[in-house]
Amino acid sequence: MLRDGTRPPLRQVLLVGVLALLAVAAATEPAAAQYVAREYGDFPLIGSRQAIWIAAQLHLFFAAFVLGVPMFAVVAEAIGIFNGEERYDKLAKEFTRLLLVSYSATAIWGAMLVFGLVTLYPRLWGYLAEIFDVSMWIYVGIFFFESFTLYLYYYGWDRWKKGRAKWGHWGLGVLLNLFGTAVMFIANSWLTYMMSPPADVTPDTAPAMVQFWSAFANATWMPINVHRFIANIVFGGAIVGAYAAFRFLSAKTDEERAHYDWMGYIGNFVAIFALIILPFAGYYLGREIYEFNQQMGTTMMGGFMSWLWVVQAFLIGVLFLAGNYYLWVGMGRIPGAERFQKYTKYMLAVLVLGVIVWATPRNMIASREELTAMGGQFHPFLGVLGVMSAKNTAVNLMILATFLSFLLYRRANKRPVVGWASKGTAVQGSLFVISAMVVLFYGVYGYFVPAIVRIGFSVYQVLAVLATIGGVLAIDIAMMRGAKSHGEIRWGQMPDRSQYALFILAVTFTWLMGLMGFARSGIRQHWHIFEVMRDTTVDAATPALGYASVVISVCVLLFLGLVGIIFWIGGLAEQPVVSSVGSEPASGSGSPGPGGLPG
Amino acid sequence: MTNFKVFAVVIVTLGLYTWLANAIPQIESVVPEELSFSSDVTESELVAAGENLFRGGAACMTCHGLETRAPNLLSDFAGEGTIGQRCGTRVAGVDCKTYLLESLTDPTAYVLEGFDPMVFQARSFSSAQIWALVAFLQDQGGPVTVTGADIASAEEADASAPVAAGPVSASADPLEIMRANLCLGCHKLGDEGVEIGPPFDGMGSRIDGDRIRRSVLDPMAEAAEGFEHLLGAMPPNLADMLTARQLEIVVDFLSEQR
């Protein structure tokens, strides 16, 4: 009955009922009456997955290069300012010139990646854009400022060369790095969200209901930031090293050869030094992945990806061996280095044994035939080397051996004059021995304690190694002040084979980066966004490593080819900057030592 | 010549890595197969489907194929036989089927001494997939007691479980929210809407915000004066279709309609 006492018309009651039903139906299926976007597009010939894979990988290669190079360009410029040595300034400028021409390639591949996602994976892109829209706008804004800062940094180099203007110019370099890092951090949040979305996000959660900050600062965001930050330095150093090697090999004059020999050394120094820290960042990332989702962690280390780590160990072994080989060969052009060459074979032995231990598998997925051939779940003798205790011990000893190579190289042509030199050297030696003992002790002790205790031991091993690196270096810098010289470094007098070691380093770093990218992305398995949005394409299954390796090799070949073209184009516009490094004194207060550090 | 040598070094290095990656065992991550069984599903169908999952998409072999991470389920463990033989005697009073099901759906339910709780995440798998796994594990030395009825009742329970419906719209605009939730299909506001239920025009002068909120959250509680005959016509699930913030936006907006 209505208020006025009349009955409501039947038609009106029916209409109410129908509308109520429609309301419920619409609430259950909100988009039913609307345009529904397609879920996936199709890319001709190679398919969508390969197209996105290649675009993303190429973009990441270039992005890593343009983020890594400014870091040591700005450091090289600072060394030039503090030491007053122009060759560092010229080196920084030449690095930046390489950077300039690589920027557009980064942007082009970035655009290809975005257009690829929009056209091939529109549902995924729409979902991510709905959560991260604001950060995407900020990203573009920062990228804009970053580009113009780079132009100012490079084109203002000769204008702002002296006095306070030079400091202002250096400030631009710092700003360039800050912008670049911010851009990387923002993009990392998008991809890490796909790996580790917040726990309260389910397949039923509307993207607009996802809290922005919890999505942005997700579980693996900071570990990836740290890992990529360091890896970019390694990568930038390796590519610059390869560039210098190519220039060295095609140099026409001794002056050019000397310059590019020195440049290659700096590239290798930066790459290997950052590489030493990288495994620690890797452990941090791995631990956070386990913390986020144990199943994901197990898939990564012991599941279908378990063999990937054997390949990774092989590649890292190549990096350590090639990096050290370059240093050992380089000692041939340093007067006084002969006295250290007898130690080379011991360092080589440590490195080779370390690689063998690191590459020893343990918890592998194996068929019945493979188990029978091996004589059980583990190899009767080598199986014991496959556990983390042995691997941690191996990698820490390899790092110590590599640092020793650097140290010997650094002081090859120097004779300390301070009164406490012999005591200082003894303390340095003791630090090496003590840290090696600590590493070995916890490595062996790890076999007798539960896994949870054993994991904590790796922290002590790492701290011992880092403390030794810091302590030995501090002593060395103080001890080599005013050191006498055995003679100048004969820059340019390097055998060609050493330069090919730099190429192998660059190719290996690049390939390793592709491999790790596959591991990071592949552990999501058949999910676009882990346990939130399924991949329902025909390519949902993550491919085996053999297939992935082919795609990675194609990407690396494309990248190196494009880099070669870009550098060639850059060389057309400007002659390379050559400084007379061969005539620089290698000793004396404040001069740079062969270690690339202030002496 | 230099160019050729450099190119050769690059190609040989890439070739070596590609060869190495292809020389090791090739394992692909398999997508768990979607399963759907009729009530008369046979034992062999269940076992076969379970085995596919166990060895493939569910990645059980990653841990249960070894003896360091988890007990090997397919071979003898600690002299108690295979999992089908030992599952019924593992916990007193718990039969094999229950033991396996609960172990899968609640990995902390029965943790063997010396091992960590299982990392298997049942929420990623359907009831049919879980039951197929149970059937396969029972088949490892024991009788299979899983039937189509188990799966049917589990799926029925899943279907009747309350589903957390998401909001229809993410908008913070009151009009957008009301349009998206079809409020204007029964309530008139200015030139929009249909005058079936109480009009939104002037609502703030008739009732306060608390009453509006109650009407949305529990439309069956009381009818608006003069609209008692429509009690029950308003969708009962509006509370599930709005976020708390959206509800307050709508309540504030309607309170201001005077």
Structural class of chain A: mainly alpha
Computed over alpha carbons, the radius of gyration of chain B is 30 Å
Give the uncertain stretches of chain A in residue-range form: 1-6, 582-599
Which CATH architecture of the largest domain in chain B? Orthogonal Bundle
Question: Hey, roughly how much beta strand do the residues of chain B contain?
Answer: under 5%
Structure report:
The complex is a heterodimer of chains A (599) and B (258). Chain A has helices at 10-28, 48-83, 86-120, 122-155, 163-195, 212-216, 221-249, 254-292, 294-301, 308-330, 344-358, 368-374, 388-410, 421-445, 451-479, 496-522, 545-573; strands at 414-415, 484-485, 527-529, 533-534. By secondary structure, chain A is mainly α. Chain A folds into two domains: 1-36; 48-336 and 412-416 and 480-583, no CATH class. In chain A, strands 1-2 form a two-stranded antiparallel ribbon. The radius of gyration of chain A is 28 Å and the shape is globular. Chain A starts with 9 loop residues before the first helix and ends in a 26-residue tail after the last helix. Chain B is mostly helical and 258 residues long. Chain B folds into two domains: 43-160, Cytochrome c-like domain (Cytochrome Bc1 Complex, Chain D, domain 2), CATH 1.10.760; 174-255, Cytochrome c-like domain (Cytochrome Bc1 Complex, Chain D, domain 2, Orthogonal Bundle), CATH 1.10.760. Helices cover 44% and strands 0% of the residues of chain B. Chain B has twelve helices and no strands. In chain B, helix 8 crosses helix 12 (244-255). The radius of gyration of chain B is 30 Å and the shape is flat. The chains are: A mainly alpha (599), B mainly alpha (258). At the A-B interface, helix 1, helix 9, helix 10, helix 16 and helix 17 of A face helix 1, helix 3 and helix 11 of B.
